[in-house]
Write a structure and sequence with these properties.
Helices cover 2% and strands 40% of the residues. By secondary structure, it is mainly β. It has 2 domains: 8-108 and 255-284; 111-205, Immunoglobulins (Immunoglobulin-like, Sandwich), CATH 2.60.40. Strands 1, 4, 16, 17 and 18 form a 5-stranded mixed sheet that branches. The radius of gyration is 25 Å and the shape is elongated.
């Protein structure tokens, strides 16, 4: 499932009350971070889930299914994704005692670039490092794969241009011998269309294994034909038949299912379904979500 700016995004919310008591005034509190490419959980499309409407009631033992809508913003085109992240619970209950669900869908079409520098710490100063190989990987594919690569120039700077806007990229850094990337490798490297992304990569003395850069998988694997078993040969002693040769399992096709993001932490399909939240007699189960990596 993908969207464009101005489209009406549909989110299916399923609230399940497994407790013995009816739950009243259950509201959605969304986009606490104020992200411009996320849904806000407000407006008429969210129906009774808003504060203004007073919330919904979920009877004991009931699974309440709601279809809510909100317009996709231009900011989602710039980042390549539309997000929705909401807490569900009673209006007067602390957020972290409420159920949390999270989902996202692609908003394709925009392109952007990533610029930056790779520098080595040298005492109190920083010196650009030339010739460092950098590989940009789409980590949200079914089989993560490289989309672009470059090497740093004489002053340690680099540019990766004309790649689809997307928040799920990782930058793999192949550091020279005797140096390692400070604070982890790969580095989270979102690309947006509206503003040029910039990364500052710091190398320091140390030894690190070369990063294992994902190579994707065969998008159209050839089927494997099992080898016929070998016919036993007659001898003076009973012969043992040769076992059939083992067949290999073909890798999964390279794809991003319905535009959804990996590791959402809830059972979702793009922005079409918003997980199954168990509201246990008034106390809600917390659904953990993936944290974005810090930039180096």
């Amino acid at each position: 499932m993908t969207y464009q700016p101005g489209d009406l995004a549909h989110v299916t919310v399923t609230l399940t009350n497994t407790g013995p008591n009816r739950l009243t005034e259950i509201v959605a509190r969304c986009n606490g971070g104020g992200d411009k490419d996320a849904l806000w959980g407000t407006g008429p499309g969210w129906g009774d889930l808003t504060y203004a409407a007073g919330g919904v009631t979920v009877e004991a033992g009931q699974a309440l299914v709601l279809d809510v809508t909100e317009v996709v913003s231009q900011a989602s085109f710039d980042t390549g994704v539309v997000w929705v992240s909401c807490f569900f619970g009673h209006a007067d209950v602390d957020l972290f005692d409420s159920a949390l669900a999270f989902a996202g869908a692609a908003v394709p079409g925009a392109v952007g670039s990533l610029r930056g520098e790779v520098e080595r710490v040298d005492g109190q100063s920083r010196v650009g490092v030339a010739g460092v190989r950098l590989v940009l990987v789409d980590a949200d594919l079914a089989c993560p794969a490289a989309v672009a690569e470059t090497t740093t120039g004489a002053d340690g700077t680099f540019t990766i241009g004309d790649v689809p806007a997307w928040p799920g990229y990782e930058l793999y850094v192949v550091a020279p011998p005797g140096l390692k990337v400070r604070n982890g490798n790969p580095i989270w490297a979102p690309v947006t269309a509206s503003s040029e992304g910039r990364l500052s990569v710091t190398l320091e003395a140390g030894t690190a294994e070369a990063p294992e850069i994902p190579a994707g998988c065969d998008p159209d694997p050839e089927p494997t034909t099992p080898t016929e078993p070998t016919t036993p040969t007659a001898t003076t002693a009973p012969a043992v038949p040769t076992a059939p040769a083992a067949t290999t399992t073909a890798p999964a096709p390279q794809a991003r299912a319905d535009g959804e993001l990996a590791e959402t932490g809830a059972s979702v399909t793009g922005l079409g379904a918003f997980g199954l939240l168990a509201l246990l007699g008034g106390a809600a189960a917390l659904v953990l979500v993936r944290r974005r990596r810090s930039m180096v």
